[in-house]
User: Fold these one by one.
Assistant:
Number 1:
Amino acid sequence: MMRAFVSTVLLGLAMAPADGADRTITVDGEACSFKVRFDPAKFKEKQVRDTAGAILGSGLPYPDFAVHPTTETLTLDIVAADQAACLKSVGPSRGLDLLDIPGLAEFRARKTEQTIDTCAFEAIKGRALIPGASPKILVEHAASAKTCGHFVAALENRAGLRTAWREFVGKRCVDNSDPARCRKESLALEQKPDADELIRRDVIGFDWTNCAIEFLTLNQERERDEATREALQKEFMRRFKTKANCDD
């Protein structure tokens, strides 16, 4: 996305007059590093840095959730620690001193809510993965309960879970580049000593998860977020002389 703005950045540089009193800061983005020039007599450096980080960099909240292999046994303590780590970007973002750019405060609030929503989702999944946990925990993710409820029903029917899981495996392997190999490798789980528990975790970690993540606000609002960020970047670059250095 950043590459699309390089021409805008250079245009802003060409139109803006040079000023020996200006100060330059550097902000790192996902694929680009930005040099932002501003007049310290008009703007506080912290405000410019915080705003540039929010718009051009990674200053706004984003869920940083842990990924555990299905062979790892989760506990409530692990799930709680994962959720706390997932939310760690929310606090610093709330402390940013942002410039008054239309839409920016609302964008920060939206990214905060998306992060909280995603971390809550991961905590629900984590609690369901704890050995002996009730599958009904997954229904706590209300947004996906109706569409993904058949996975919960399959998990509740322990006697028929293997049969249902084999059907799930067949469906998930249809679009694989090598469906036969996909089925063979997936079904090999049945040969493990703790197969019943691993199959239960596989249904939660793969089938239910891939169904339910479509209902995360982070995913449902992705296009809206991209458009908002693009507009904010253009407005920031209109106000400040900005030079981008992007990776090839």
Number 2:
Amino acid sequence: MQQEKGSAMIKKAIVLLLAFAILGGGGVAAWRPWRAKGPVPVGEPTPRPGGEGWIDLLDAAHAGGWKNITDDKDIFELKDGMLHILGRTLYPLRYVGYTPEPFRNFDLHVEFKIARRANSGVFLRSRPNDPVSRGFEVQVLDDFGKPPGKNGCGAIYDVVTPMFNMSRPAGEWNSFDITVHDKEVTVVMNGWKVVQSDFAKMTTPLGKFSIAYNDLPLEGVLAFQDHGGEAWYRNILVRKR
């Protein structure tokens, strides 16, 4: 009996020590601010794709299809083979969309750079009147060197955290290679696969959204967000699947 009481007391002490470690003591490493240990992954923008089937949305035949789909404000320019979001005002958020046709299943290659502390986004399968809630965003953000997060660069905004933060410093070029097929989405950033997600499994609303990703439209426009900071996009190529 005495031995059983001793064993019970030891077990109780272990439980108390574990609770202390988790809630307030020395074993709180999981709760501390993230710090990289050793070298962090570094990627390089992937080159402009070649081969058949690619459509250059900034060439002479397609560049005229880009419009401000929010209002009639002058928020972007096409210059030197780039789509430049001027970033003059923060609110309301505005969107530059390719309007001649929607896209359903496709590969997208796009290269981008942003100003210091700037924010933008690549919106896919979006409804022009509500890109945020009726479409999804691959986040573009100046967050070089920060831990990956669901609102960080390369994330499916507020829903899917990238495996790595592969963004380069502000002012340097990055690349996205995004594949969208039915409800499966893959994001490769600067040569590293950072997101592989199946929206069919997202049957309840996530993050700030009121609609489940499983219920998002399967077709819509490609758009870039004007979030009040300068952003540049080039080599915007789409290949339908």
Number 3:
Amino acid sequence: MNMLRKWMAVCLCIFGLWAGAAQARDITFDLRDANGPVTQKSYPGKYLLLAIGYTSCPDICPTTLYEYGLVMKALKNPDAIQPIFVTIDPVSDDVERLNTYTRFFDERIVGLTGEMKNIQALADQLGATFGYRMDGKKVDQPKPGMSYTVYHSALIYLIGPDRKLMDVFDYQIGAKGLTEALDKVLGDGKGGPAPKAAAPESDKQDAPQTAAPAVANGKAACALPAGFEAAKQAVALKDVMADAPADKVVLLNLWALWCAPCRTELPLLDKLAASQKDMKVQTLNLGDKEPDIATLFAKMGLKNLPQTRTQGSDVLQRLGAPGLPFTSLFVNGKMAAAKSGMIDKTDALAEYAKCAAASQ
């Protein structure tokens, strides 16, 4: 997974050099939705907000579509834009599956599929990259029944009514950032530009200059659990959660119902919470309804995790999270380390908690 993210970072850098020329190009496509053929002419007069991905994507795609949903609810002129999600895995994503997936996040998001050559043609115009691997080797043409993995670049594209590429956003821009950017373009729907948006709360706060120091127990620093990386900047837990736990050591796990790996790791975290005296295990749900969270907890028999939730996705941006699931470790109220991806073992977490709790 780390290698994949490094590869994606390289792709993003390359794209940055290419994007200036690309934004002058007309974007055309020949795809289909649940009702039949769809081209660039199918949404006359509308801006297009477009991302590529696939329905079994564990983190980037659901995070992007979750933010799509928040943005569509927050825009001052949502009727001026059409959110689109184009699958890059047409072998697995038929139209029915694709649109069931997109509508989970917002009824207005349209899922498009098509022939591989047409999907590739659109990706080439955007400068997007994707591909497939099986057993460590590249697969050119995946077929049904093959156990392959999919990789892709992670960007959001704004296409104008004239079908020229206008702007490109990193998917980590967050719902607030994307809403503000689109409001400037779409206006307020009343014939004038949108009122200037207030700065996001995260922008109003003084940015911390340094990351939390390594936790030391005597002369030896506490070893980070496998998959965790030391925090690159200091983030205060109180700035992430309104009612932040006061415990010296806190594990904060971000999750959502749409995130399959998140649901998989919850029972393991529940057992960890039951056994822990050195660390508070805190889960934070992003955007789901309280009754739905309660239903899942009851179905899974989760008794030791809090059903805490937050309505927005800005917490992802504040923590520097690329997607879900995401787990961070806080010591004395400051983020010390984080892991992007599923938790599948907890012994090392327990050892870290014991060491950090005993440190000065």
Number 4:
Amino acid sequence: MVRYELEYPKQPYSTVKRYDSLASYSLSTIHTIIATSPLVNVSFNPPNSPFPTILPMIGALGSYARPSADITDVQDLYLHGYVSSRIMNLSRTPDQPDGLPVCISATHLDGLVLTLTPNSHNYNYRSATLFGHATLVTDRDEKLFAMRRITDGVVPGRWEGSRVPPNAGEMASTSVLRVKIAAGSAKVRAGGPTDDKGDMSDEALKDRVWTGVVPVYQTLGTPLAGEYNRVEVPGYIAEYVRDSNVGAQEQAVEAAKATVVPKKVVDE
């Protein structure tokens, strides 16, 4: 059976122009980048401010209507924060009937690409941006759904591994935003160094300059017990640390060995 990969629609504000051969609009690609980032950067335009605002936040993808939806499916992005924070207050204003317009981005660095000349040095990276409207979640069950997704996004299984459900005070002091995603795009660079023909034909240059990729990946350390901890490190935490470290290293090494996608430059 043929399975078609869903993509976000290309919009004027979301279409990648420069090096568009590196672009992807695949839900799977974009969602994976967002879902595997410990933090996302959320930007919005506060009224009466001369500058946009950008906040590092913890977010999690999910669909309350379809809890079984995975990264290949249409989902919302949930963000949580303090009840009286500016972004939460702006999401309550009646002059934003569709919600607060937001942009959300995440980037992973996979390698340092070192070439013959400084001008052609590069990074192996995966970046994604989502565009959507944020509204407050008012339904208690959906709020709990989102809080669980966000907690398990920190360490899978942590929701059940902690004291739940949140008490009344915790529920009252925490707000959750649901971002309905309108569009998204990703840009991914993988592969080794590339240099222009002039430098490549300079044998003396190639004899003295090292070229290649230094893989870059996040490593989780050995869990350290807290001052009042009384239990051994649970299996789900140890497993997450191990699997995360192995996966991150494999991702970086595979990116370094990948075939470079030729760049097609479009400037507008």
